[in-house]
Amino acid sequence: MTPDGSKGLYPPSDEYRKSAVIKSAEEYEKIYNASIEDPVAYWTKEAEQIEWFSKDWKDAFTWNKRTSEFTWFKGGKLNVCYNCLDRHVKNGLKNTAAIIFQGEEDDDVKVYTYGRLLNEVEKFANVLKSKGIKKGDRVAVYLPMIPELVITLLACTRIGALHSVVFAGFSSEAIYNRVADCKAKLMVTSDGSFRAGKKIDMKGKVNEVLEKDTDIKTVIVVKRTNAEIFMEDDRDVWWHKEMAKAPERCEPEIMDAEDPLFLLYTSGTTGKPKGMVHTNGGYIVGAYSSYKYVFNYRPGQIHWCTADIGWITGHTYILYGPLSFGATTLLFEGVPNYPEEDRFWQVAEKWKVDLFYTAPTALRMIRKSGDEWIKKHDLSSLKMLASVGEPIDADVWKWYHTVIGGGRCPISDTWWQTETGSIIIAPMTGAFDLKPGSAMKPLPGIETTVLREDKTECDVGESGSLYITRPFPSLARTIWNDHKKFVDLYWSAVNGYYLTGDGAKIDPDGDHWLLGRVDDVISVAGHRIGAAEIEAALISHRAVAEAAVVPVPDEIKGEAIYTFVTLKNGFVDSDELKKELINQVRNVVGPIATPKTIQISSGLPKTRSGKIMRRILRKIAGGGKYDDLGDTTTLLDPKIVESLIEGRK
Ligand code: WTA
Fold first, then answer.
1. Distance CA 276, CA 478 (A)
2. Which of 422, 333, 347 lies closest to 382 in space, CA to CA?
């Protein structure tokens, strides 16, 4: 039963409803229906809420279904950095906090007003220019969660350079692949970072990357930990020295709406990560509009998204969404459980955070450590909570609502992807009686459908594959240097529908229930890792003949990595070898991809045509018995399955 005893639903308070942008289900329906009747008119109205240097687009939307090329607001001119900073300074927010930086040490705090942030960004934009960076060039960013990271990204957008942020948990090989693929010319990094009380080396990894052939001519290094590091004379320069001599003013570059804004790599079903390309106009319209509808931000509030800027969530909801809206956004360097299990709540209490956005994996970890850590703190400033990255089950949802939200804060379960750039399905928290475990309804302007394998539409309540029926502004335009792959992966299942790669069902109320990936992408702590990338890392080890990687359920991380490996002749199973294989994955892909289990076996289940049957391996890894495995008649050698079950760890 729910607090008010109604059908298991959680209505927002009247007070919250009143403060929301969309205040009732009827209002949502009206806006939504009109938006689907005429999506171009709807998105054009949304686009008018940001500032354009010129709105001279001929057609707000063009779409060539055959080539899967589409444009939004092409011909319109704008600058994203201008929209995030100059516009607010001009409109009276000069002395309002844009970013509150909270370092891992409690007294390590910096507050940047919109005025000061603009000033720093202009200077750094000039530093980039002085190193030869111009419109269209790529800048690789490998930084901890410090203000210089935000300054770097905004400086890139100011001059029209594309940033490509590499998450700090990746190995040097993974960094190299991302830097080489987009031919980045310059890299911004730091001497190191702080994580859970330890100093982590960053520049050393960058040095390793740059031993190989790349296009990087300059490395700008932020002093963060004061670690002793190697600086290459002609290549590496210090951030603070460059900033000290940089001119103050830098005019924003006039960008076309369809000019690329940034790249962000994400794992997929092939071994090679894909550089998703987002554009200036469409992306910022999606970031702004979704921020407005989902978070109901009010002036004076503090927004805190706990993601890392290395992922799309950090890009859109630490940086571009809140700043394009003129919000105050908290940038937190630390982790949830250091120095103690209540670090998040110390920070939320200290800064009187209003809006809090995190991932189910963090919530599960926090819940496990005990509610007393939360109850120690006054969290009465919280108004609204949100979740992203993986399905949040009803149990964790209710706990989040009661223990963290004090039974008072509505929760928005937000579904979206690196590709979509901004939130696609989520309850507008002022409009709906919330349904734990469901991401509920698409945002205005977005139409979804769930299809069976034969591409017919699923019945109500039936699980299938989730599609979006047409391009929307913040959807990535292509994969860097590989438009064919973009077409094949996302648009070829049903011509004209965008294939999300997620399973879903829609209930009789039209609410969406997300069911996880339907492809070979594993979601470890909400981070996407391609099974193929881990397999490739394992196969590159001298002892490995074949490898297959599947997800297994994990109490905290949601999914963990289970690997099946067969060895080449002459190698035998040993703990030593397993350790080596785990290290191999850590070195090639990164610590985030560390396998939970390595099972060495004499063979893998294959079809007669030689395809590894991952469906069966998933069941075996998850503890399934022979009878649970479904159809095994297409297997080349059914005996292998028995030996795999026997050898299970
Ligand atoms: C999953 C993160 C269920 C999904 C923004 C998607 C979710 C992938 C949710 C994208 C949610 C994200 N409920 N699943 N609320 N949010 N996902 O690109 O499988 O890092 O395809 O973007 O995360 O992960 P990505």
1. 6
2. 347
Bridge partner residues of 275 (DSSP): 265
pLDDT bucket at 110, cuts 50 / 70 / 90: very high
- pLDDT class of 626 with cuts at 50, 70, 90: confident
pLDDT of residue 4: 43
Task: Judge whether 63 and 463 are in contact, CB under 8 Å.
Answer: no
**Could you write out the DSSP letters of every residue in 614-637?**
HHHHHHHHTT--GGGG---TTBS-
State mean pLDDT over 413-439: 97
Q: Could you tell me which residues come within 8 angstroms of residue 1 by beta carbon, excluding any fewer than 6 positions away?
A: 8
- In angstroms, rounded to a whole number, what is the distance separating the alpha carbons of residues 82 and 98? 14
Q: What is the atom index within ligand 1 of the atom nearest the CA of 266?
A: 18
Distance 165 CA to ligand 1 centre (A): 19
- CB burial readout 265-295, b (16+ within 10 A) else e: bbbbeebbbbbbbbbbbbbbbbbbbbbbbbb
Residue 468 structure tokens: 């979006």
Say how many Å lie between the CA of residue 414 and the centre of ligand 1: 8
Ligand 1 cavity residues, CB under 6 Å: 266, 311-313, 388-391, 413-418, 439, 501-502, 514, 516-517, 523, 528
Closest to 47 measured CA to CA, from 11, 22, 80, 70: 80
pLDDT for the residue 2:
41
Taking the CA of residue 77 as centre, how many other CA atoms within 13 Å lie in the half-sphere pointing to its CB?
7
pLDDT tens digits, residue range 401-417?
Answer: 999 999 999 999 999 99
Which amino acid, residue 625?
K
CA 415 to centroid of ligand 1, rounded, Å: 6
Task: Give the distance between the most distant pair of CA atoms in the chain.
Answer: 73
Per DSSP (E only), the strands in 429-519 are: 448-451, 464-468, 478-479, 498-506, 512-517
Best mutation site among 294, 528, 592 for ligand 1, i.e. most ligand atoms within 8 A of its Cβ? Answer: 528
